[in-house]
Amino acid sequence: MNYLNLFILTIFCLFTSGTYAENHPDLAWKLGYSKTQLEEPVNFISANVPGAVQLDIAREEKYPSYSFADNYKKFSWMEDRFYTYVTSFRKPSLNTNERLYFSSKGIDYQFEIYINNEKIFAQEGMFTYINVDLTDKLKDDNVLKILLFPAPKRFPFPVDRIQASNVVKPPVSYQWDWHPRLIPLGIWDETGLEVRNRSYVEEVYINYQLASDYKKSVITILASGKETAGKKYSWELTDADGKRVLHTQGEMQDVLSVTGISLEDPKLWWPHDQGTPYLYLSTFTLFDGSGKEIQKVVQKVGFKRVRLIMNEGAWTENSSFPKSRSVPPAQFEINGRKIFAKGSNWVNPEIFPGIITKERYKELIDLAVNANMNIFRVWGGGIINKESFFELCDEKGILIWEEFPLACNDYPDDAHYLSVLKQEATSIIRRLRKHASLALWCGGNELFNNWSGMTDQSLPLRLLNSLCLEYTPLIPFNPTSPLMGMGHGNYVFRSPDGEEVFQEMKRAHYTAYTEFGIPGMSPIEVLKQIIPENDLFPPKPKTAWEDHHAFGAWMGNTWLCPEILEDYFGKASDLEELVKQSQLLQCEGYKAIFEEARRQKPYCAMALNWCYNEPWPAAVNNSLVVYPAVCKPAYYAVKNSCRPFLASACLSKFRWNEGEEFFADLWLLNDGYEPKDIRTVTMKLVAGDQTFDLLTWHPGNIKDNTNKAGPTCRLKLPHLNQTQFRLVVEVEGHPEYNSDYTLIFIPKYSVNNDKTPVMNAN
Amino acid sequence: MNYLNLFILTIFCLFTSGTYAENHPDLAWKLGYSKTQLEEPVNFISANVPGAVQLDIAREEKYPSYSFADNYKKFSWMEDRFYTYVTSFRKPSLNTNERLYFSSKGIDYQFEIYINNEKIFAQEGMFTYINVDLTDKLKDDNVLKILLFPAPKRFPFPVDRIQASNVVKPPVSYQWDWHPRLIPLGIWDETGLEVRNRSYVEEVYINYQLASDYKKSVITILASGKETAGKKYSWELTDADGKRVLHTQGEMQDVLSVTGISLEDPKLWWPHDQGTPYLYLSTFTLFDGSGKEIQKVVQKVGFKRVRLIMNEGAWTENSSFPKSRSVPPAQFEINGRKIFAKGSNWVNPEIFPGIITKERYKELIDLAVNANMNIFRVWGGGIINKESFFELCDEKGILIWEEFPLACNDYPDDAHYLSVLKQEATSIIRRLRKHASLALWCGGNELFNNWSGMTDQSLPLRLLNSLCLEYTPLIPFNPTSPLMGMGHGNYVFRSPDGEEVFQEMKRAHYTAYTEFGIPGMSPIEVLKQIIPENDLFPPKPKTAWEDHHAFGAWMGNTWLCPEILEDYFGKASDLEELVKQSQLLQCEGYKAIFEEARRQKPYCAMALNWCYNEPWPAAVNNSLVVYPAVCKPAYYAVKNSCRPFLASACLSKFRWNEGEEFFADLWLLNDGYEPKDIRTVTMKLVAGDQTFDLLTWHPGNIKDNTNKAGPTCRLKLPHLNQTQFRLVVEVEGHPEYNSDYTLIFIPKYSVNNDKTPVMNAN
User: Fold this and answer.
1) pLDDT by 10-residue block (mean), chain A, 762 residues
2) Topology of domain B487-509+521-637, CATH
3) S-S: B489 plus which of A321, A419, A430, B314, CB 3.0-4.6 Å?
4) Does B209 touch chain A (CB under 8 A)?
5) Looking at the complex, does the CB of residue B424 fall below 8 Å from at least one CB of chain A?
6) Is the ipTM of this complex over 0.90?
7) What's the Cα-to-Cα distance from A36 to each of A117, A149, A156, A169, A183, rounded to whole Å?
8) Count of CB contacts below 8 A, A vs B?
9) What is the pTM of this model?
10) Domain A200-306, what architecture?
């Protein structure tokens, strides 16, 4: 075998949160694989760290892009191999107080670590940071090896997500209705060697409790590490202008807990649409006996109070005997203020988490802020994101509903699973609890539904509740989503029984809509990158369209739903027209749902669509942003529906007939914390050059965080010269509050494309 | 002050579970009280220990019985005093290995302990056993003093249960709709001095896990105590015949954990109606260095597996979008067998728990077994019962749903309350977990309803979930009752809107009926003991009737409901007639509910009426057993409705008119684990000497644990010579399965007592 020899930078370990890797000397890694654990790999190729074994092999063996057609299937053999990462290095010169560590923020999934062929560490679980002191095992030249086990698969289950039902590994990669079967393995986060002082701090946690009037934050510093007892420390808190506002110092203990440090009049952290996501800077410094600085731990701190409280009206429902319980709370209160949570379900932005960059996170999070979203539900089917994700949410003011990696499976009450879950969850909680954006823990996705089969008695969920209580008692915890009173779905514009989103949302009565989706096609440029040219039009099952979720993904012909498109619009003559049809339904569907959820405020307090982004380019998906970060038209529609203040129309259906009475209710929606004074709002119907004024309303004062229902417009539909028309709502002097909606018009005696007379009934 | 001097029996501490007190030398206690903590009491009276300060004062000052009329009001001043219990004793002779302990199983509620005027212990909480080593503080003559604080009252709330909303003290005594305002204080469980070896075992817990085929029990012995490390121990398990089936020995550690002890083919513990509540005997013996026995801990062990699983059909409900979650599980499975849980809500059998005896427990538990009940829900408004309660339930085969002492209040997320709750709950869980009868933990009563105001986010409930998981992961936990899909109420035969229990139960669809009640009057002999003779008839508000819950207890004129009685039966001419009317409604109402709940099996899996017993003699109450242990007629009605196998009629209303078509559905109900073969069942209508045969059914085979619906009888009601008639269901050759129901008949042109013509409409 041929190892690269490296020089090690022996620097003082001076790490700051989020820049941990900067101090890792670069190592050159090689990767090999074998069919059994005992076999040594025959060949080694160069490996990117962080990355994934699949990406290294694909690069080395010149695989075509896994995003194109069904190329991902070529990767399936890689699930069942043992992998060996190997690197070599010269022993650095270390003084008596220095130790050499191998450290990693994530190795996926089960592995053993060897130094010079001696096993020194083993772990199951990809979310627990690894810190192995190599010092006592070092020779002049050293070989570090990581043996990785094959992708875990629960036996004897089918090739499906259920194979991941006894591991703390994201089930999404075992195949989902918008994710191919492709199970990442490998070193997936910052990893390397690090020289540390014998005494070092592993964790600094700035805990706090805000006074009930928010005029004071009472801080507790918790710090722990290795051989720190007796060392001196200092701590300071500086504000966003760099001004020191608090300072203390003292002597470390094994576990330091300094309580009762008061910050008067703290500037609060707010979601971006409610105020400033204000962050302070905490700097904790450890000194050696001579007063020389050993280590600095720098991290941002935001002060907020989050509660899940009862939705308005929820206590008084269900008043007849026998009485059950009231629904659980789903109203976010931030710093004492009820907010309407508007946002989306975040999924992995890459199939291989090893290649997610801070830049990608930033691009996607900036887009969410721009779309007036204030929350992400980080869905339990995917990974726990890297630190930079949370740092960005802290900075940008996006609330995080964080799920543990459990989804749509019956995770067992089994001792081994529970022990891995405890290890991983503890690591996750302790890592994330310092983030101002953390607003809600959740055990996982759809676990109390029959396709999963877990119940309130399931020990994994009781364990997660218990661990969250232990480490973060002030962050709410839900065992799963949906809970009673919360809605998941639907995921199509029109369900098989003919009910459209408009009607579904009118009959719906939920405290929170935590998932709802409308599929929309990706832009043509994206489609051309993933579908072979010959298959592009018309889309057909059993082609690359199906691999990319246009057919056979979920129920019926999802996600393309060609029969719905054709029924509304007639057969599309080319791909461009088809994409337009699909994207129009996605836009109008999402507008209907987001705006109706907001109209149901204050009983309803949340609207999160399924889903925000995607891990690879889907041909059709409920996502708003196509991989890697391409906005669909629906993104802009949702951005409009999520404006803090807007004029909105409540529609009852999509397709209208000539001669029928068209009607729509006019609303002003205000999620902002300012009242508004609106003089005049008008509604008109526009079809090409035909315009019909429908009504004029003088609403006057609109209270803060309160909607106002206006009048209903009515018009017996005349003959229109187009098959679509727009309902336009205009706010005089405030075009930024305007809205418009596109609807389908059916003229009398019309015939559709296949010559069958259209039924003009409602 | 005048203290009694006592001789102390210096015996070896040889305690066995449940007979802890036998080794406590008797102490003579005196009691005094004062208005402030600093004042010394002026007078001391003799005190009964265990008991209550109120009972000592009442005895000494010759108070009349608190059960009569409104005498309990005379006790109210006692809520706000400081109490001092005091006793004196000579120092016993102790060898170098012996220590003298003051030990108590319960002092209610907040107290400090002084030896020779030095404070040596303080505690808030009545359920944590107290063990104070006095040895180093002993003089030749010693004075032991317990200073008790006044009844805790949350400030500034009204004189109501809400005053108990931040303490771990049963709120029931702060007043309930069947409990007077009378808040016990004092030493309430076995208490005394005890000579112990320096090395002693405090807790032995025989933990186990049954194999999935129940062919093996894998046992872990957990033992902990004081200065036990290095001492030898032996342990044996004997069966009910005294035959040793397991044995091991070894050396103690501070916390001993001996795992993997296998018992092959264990005899299982079953609720009495499903099999034998088989108990083994565990004997743990501690030896000193010379091999001499120091201590024996003897306790019974039953092997069972309990789970709460999904009710049949519950997974497939609520199938339309948006989807919420499925209801939580409410089906008990014992040793792999689904059982229908039939029973009642247990409340404190005394206002003052200090005077509850094992004999009282036995009498009440025997009655429950006799009434075919297999479960008690020990309601969260009351105390955690004494050990003998659980020992008897273990022996008799009654399952225990055990609630923590939280009920109908919004217990706060406050650090002090949480710390007391943690201490008390930990003590409770560790004490009760050894009992075979323990089947379900529950956070408390009706906490997720608007009159309480707690939610899934409330930290006290998250804490209880977490502690139960830590100490008893194999016992299910519910945060409260009712949960979604479970029903509480109604509590009257007919609600104000005219709906009777018959109709209410027919529209009801619940996984479990965990509370439902029908009020019934106490027997005349009881009434005469509590109501002044002049007030006996007719019952009126603002008299002793109201003090004893006949009026103004809950909504409307509960619990007497005179307008309902009069409407059905006409005005009663004397007390005897009134009692009969009330008791008839209670009987028929309870039969309707228990039997309908059973008909709703398998979706429904539980029926528990509110309530079983009562802490003092109520004039009218939903109870089946009047204080102290007097069976109402409803007790026998419920006993019949709970027979494992019976013929049952499903009725639709209580009052029938001449000429109307009477109908009733015939059922056979089988909760037993045997199939039945039934040849012939008949139904007939009987009114005095008039008899009408209604139908004959040949049902044939009835599967185990399965009901069978039969035909519906119909009869156009002829003129009957009586105002009541009976529907009689007879099983040929099996009179033990017969049932009958009493109903009201209204002849045509009848007039009621006040001369208003009766409306004969349905």
Assistant:
1) 35 35 69 96 97 98 98 98 98 95 98 98 98 98 98 94 98 98 98 96 97 98 95 98 98 94 98 98 96 96 98 91 96 98 98 98 98 98 98 98 98 98 98 98 98 98 98 98 97 97 97 98 98 98 98 95 98 98 98 98 98 98 98 98 98 98 98 96 98 98 98 98 97 98 91 46 37
2) TIM Barrel (3.20.20)
3) A321
4) no
5) no
6) yes
7) 17, 9, 20, 22, 19
8) 144
9) 0.95
10) Sandwich (2.60)
